[in-house]
Design brief:
globular
Length: about 400
């Protein structure tokens, strides 16, 4: 005879209270909405075409020849760690020991989680640029630390950092600065002068810095400058990047960290209890991808810049205020000129109105009102898809 079990009765919720504020991500909600309505998904940031065929073939070859099919080394396969070190030297003149200063992770998301869990203790304050990628807030909460937002604010067609506001946010409890440049979702690329000021502040106040640089090769104006290369920053900076955005293989989840041996050791101590290892055969393929010629990166940027302009021009024609990004593959717009005030409600209604899905920026803010009228669009899609989306969005103007 089978008896029905009685649900556990307790005043304490099942979910860790630190994560009570984090439900289903907005990306999952909007992607499900796109599927249900048959809409064009300009919400979640993944390409709708695969990366270079030769890199896919490298992954297939690795699988078929038994490379990485069993547990790879915990820090990552030597070929990939060597390729990451060579990449940092090639593009930025930064020398890293592949054995002690490089750690391979399950995408940048795990790198962020492992870094914050390793470097923070309950009560530590973390300054993060707002709006921020949603996993930042969740990882800070899991560490029991306190998130202190510093807001990038719209000014003259871009989102800018107030360095005085950043300095004022630092207290004796501040342990770490969490930066993202090129910045998702605003497309801002911090300038060398801004990064120099941030570095001076970190040295002066003895702060650690975790910097998310996954869009490093997607800069359309200016250039990406790694914070770790500035005076006094090498020993206090954890630099994070990944293959997904640069090579259009987001499902492979190959990310990495470069840092001093002491910081790598700390982060690896946490990472080993998260995934331990991942993406074995794909690591060998990404090692080959990192050695692609400069022409690959130039073509990638030119293609995305053209797509940015197609979508940006179409959004402007449809009545949005458009903040044309300097980097990443996202455009932020303001819906106020359309007579709208609530980005979340706007995005939930948009599929039925136009057959297009976007992401409301307010979910990336502590102060929801600061981003209430902002909406983010991804342009890492085929040109014909973007053109169709622009045509559909034109209904708003009509």
């Amino acid at each position: 005879m089978t008896t029905m079990s009685t649900p556990v009765s307790s005043d304490r919720p099942f979910l860790n209270r630190r994560l009570a504020a984090f439900g289903t991500t907005i990306f999952a909600e909007m992607s499900a909405l796109a599927t249900r309505t048959g809409s064009i998904n300009l919400g979640q940031g993944f390409p709708d075409t695969d990366g270079p065929a030769q890199i896919a073939e490298a992954a297939s070859r690795a699988i078929l020849t038994g490379l990485g099919n069993q547990y790879p080394p915990g820090p990552g396969v030597p070929e990939l760690r060597t390729a990451i070190a060579a990449h940092q030297q090639r593009f930025y003149g930064l020398a890293h020991d592949p054995d002690t200063e490089v750690l391979v992770t399950a995408g940048a998301t795990e790198a962020i989680a492992a870094s914050l869990l390793a470097l923070l203790e309950p009560g530590d304050e973390v300054i993060a640029l707002e709006p921020y990628y949603d996993s930042y807030a969740a990882c800070i909460a899991m560490a029991g630390a306190v998130r202190v937002p510093v807001t990038l604010r719209p000014h003259a067609g871009a989102f800018t950092l107030d360095l005085d506001e950043l300095r004022a946010a630092v207290t004796p409890r501040t342990r770490l600065l969490l930066l993202n440049t090129p910045h998702n979702p605003t497309g801002t690329v911090l300038t060398p002068a801004e990064l120099t000021a941030i570095a001076e502040l970190a040295v002066e106040r003895d702060l650690l810095v975790v910097t998310d640089e996954v869009y490093e090769h997607l800069v359309f104006e200016g250039a990406h400058t790694p914070l770790a290369g500035l005076p006094g920053m090498r020993e206090r900076t954890v630099t994070i990047s990944s293959a997904g955005k640069t090579y259009s293989f987001t499902g492979w989840k190959v990310g990495w960290i470069t840092a001093s041996p002491e910081l790598i050791t700390a982060v690896r101590s946490v990472k080993q209890f998260l995934t331990y290892v991942s993406s074995g055969p794909f690591q060998y393929a990404i090692a080959e991808a990192l050695a692609l010629p400069d022409s690959y990166y130039d073509t990638l940027r030119a293609d995305l810049a053209a797509k940015r302009d197609i979508l940006a021009d179409g959004l402007a024609a449809s009545g949005f205020e458009v903040f044309r990004p300097q980097g990443t593959y996202f455009i932020t717009t303001d819906i106020t000129p359309l007579g709208e005030k609530d980005g979340l409600a706007f995005c939930r209604a948009l599929p039925d109105r136009c057959g297009v899905v976007a992401i409301p920026n307010q979910v990336f803010y502590d102060d929801r009102s600061a981003g209430a009228t902002q909406v983010r669009w991804a342009f890492c899609k085929r040109t014909d898809v973007l053109e169709e989306a622009v045509d559909r969005l034109g209904r708003l103007a009509r």
